[in-house]
Amino acid sequence: MSKTTCNKGDTFNVDSEVPCSGGYICVPCGDKKHFSEGEVFPRCSACIEKKGNPDKLRKGLGLWELLEPRDATHKCPECGLHYRDEQTAKTCQTWCAENHSCNLDIIKHSIEQETVHI
């Protein structure tokens, strides 16, 4: 099986398989999420809650646009969180391995944390 090449700006339909891990943005509403390769793009929960842009939703634009391919992120192999810089991912890995837990001061810099709306 050949590896899919993903480029910033590529778009993908809801219910299709995520070809490359990375940060994505929902085209209709602008909500950002991180998806891992092999997952299936879901319907955007923010669009469902906010009803997004009704015109775009009616036209079937259930699209996710790639913001940053996996190559632009670094994953902690211990907990699976993603970081924009390699050093923070290494710091996370060291903490996780030594303490068998996550450190809130480290994980607040994760890409996943950027998508949490509290």
Structure description:
It is a single chain. The chain has a four-stranded antiparallel beta sheet. Strands 5-6 form a two-stranded antiparallel sheet. The chain is 28% helix and 19% strand. It is elongated, with a radius of gyration of 16 Å. 24% of the residues are buried. With 118 residues, it is α+β, with helices and mostly antiparallel strands. The chain has five helices and six strands, in the order βββααβββααα. Strand 5 and strand 6 (82-83) form a beta hairpin. The longest helix is centred in the C-terminal third of the chain and has 14 residues, at 86-99. It folds into two domains: 11-71, no CATH class; 73-114, no CATH class. It has helices at 45-50, 54-58, 86-99, 104-107, 111-114, and strands at residues 11-13, 22-26, 32-35, 63-69, 74-75, 82-83.
Which descriptors apply to this entry?
118 residues; alpha+beta; 2 domains; four-stranded antiparallel beta sheet; two-stranded antiparallel sheet; 28% helix; elongated
Helix content bin: 25-40%
Beta-strand residue fraction: 15-25%
Structural class: alpha+beta
The helix tally amounts to 5
Low-confidence residue ranges: none
| Largest beta sheet: strand ordering | 1-4-2-3
Order of helices and strands: EEEHHEEEHHH
Mean pLDDT: 80
Question: In angstroms, what is the radius of gyration?
Answer: 16 Å
Biggest beta sheet summary:
4 strands, antiparallel
Number of domains: 2
Distance between the first and last residues' Cα: 40 Å
